[in-house]
Amino acid sequence: MLHLSRLTSLALTIALVIGAPLAFAAQPAPAVAPAGTAATSKAPLPLEELRTFAEVMDRIKAAYVEPVDDKTLLENAIKGMLSNLDPHSAYLGPEDFTELQESTSGEFGGLGIEVGAEDGFIKVVSPIDDTPASKAGIQAGDFIVKINGQPTRGQTMTEAVDKMRGKIGQKITLTLVRDGGTPFDVTLARAVIQVKSVKAQLLETGYAYIRITQFQVKTGEEVSKALAKLRKDNGKKLNGIILDLRNNPGGVLQAAVEVVDHFITKGLIVYTKGRIANSELRFSATGKDESEAVPMVVLINGGSASASEIVAGALQDQKRAVVMGTTSFGKGSVQTVLPLNNDRALKITTALYFTPNGRSIQAQGIVPDIEVRKAKITNEADGDYFKEADLQGHLGNGNGGADKPTGSGAKPKAMPQDDDYQLAQALSLLKGLSITSGR
């Protein structure tokens, strides 16, 4: 299973997987050989280095202050071997492997946050909607400096994640630092995380809003159903669509491809390049555009990673949508999960992915067409201005229709764009695109 997960140890949300083709490999993985090298041609074993390795093991077993068994030493050696390749390669024990598999179904245990490492600290990449983390107000960019009072600096990602795991309902206190401010504590209870990956509604008549929280196995199907319901609720063809990928950590690659396929009629969506033959894949549109080619805006930010960047990059390159927000995370590598024969697995980086125009966004991210930073909206109440319709004996409207005196309009229903500046800007742009396109 190919994965483009964002961070290597996001076991809390365990939504760090993103991959294709979708199902885990049921058969042994093929041998990995350098391009142009026959699979049967093997380099000689580095005997001198292996002797050194064996000597180090013997010295540790003989001299370390406490007894250490061979299994522990070997597993730690394997973990070190993988973790030193890049931030996304890892050795998965039975629990980690099971959690990785469960994450693609959208249900798992934890706090509901994607985390990474920065300057020796654990950093929140993004909270997942409707989870203990998001409800507690944890934000992308927060640093977790303590877990239950114990400092996280100097801990490995795996160690920190293990401490944040626990029994469902059990409380945990995280000490956070936000924007370089004073540390503060947040206490929350671990829960079974059931993530609904797609949410949709009409912001106004004709203008649809679709938010994808992460890419799961059924996300493509959910987007298709959402589009159908939005058209039905609107009663006619939509005027425009906003696709919100902010703080979306990624997920299953095939789901990302399916989502893009719902919005374009033809062309390349994404391709990958690696050293082994089965790491080079190309995904193109099937022609089943379900959006009816209406104007479209895609929202991204620094918490949009991996599969999110594939979707945003494809729609941007295909000139199908205007990408708005801030530069995305920049996770452009592909991970392959290679199951082992003892309920364990290797997750190793095998390829890079590229947008239709051949862009690799690795460590650079998707740059929005229009940059709009997060801001607070302060609504000022309109004064009750005296109007023509308030004047006694005013003339009627020759075109028909009821008069509209002061205070005659109904109070509008609260909507997501009312206190979301980026979303409000996206809706304004979408209306302009709709008008200029004649819809």
TrEMBL record:
Stored SUPFAM superfamilies: ClpP/crotonase (SSF52096), PDZ domain-like (SSF50156)
Keyword Signal: yes
GO BP terms, alphabetized: proteolysis; signal transduction
Disordered as annotated region, ranges: 391-418
InterPro entries according to UniProt: ClpP/crotonase-like_dom_sf, CtpA/B_N, PDZ, PDZ_6, PDZ_sf, Peptidase_S41A, Tail-specific_protease
Residue ranges constituting the PDZ domain according to the UniProt record: 97-165
Coiled coil (UniProt feature): none
Cleaved signal peptide residues: 1-25
GO molecular function, one term: serine-type peptidase activity
Assigned keywords, A-Z: Hydrolase, Protease, Serine protease, Signal
Annotated GO CC locations: outer membrane-bounded periplasmic space
NCBIfam families xref list: prc
Family: Belongs to the peptidase S41A family.
Name of the protein in its database record: S41 family peptidase
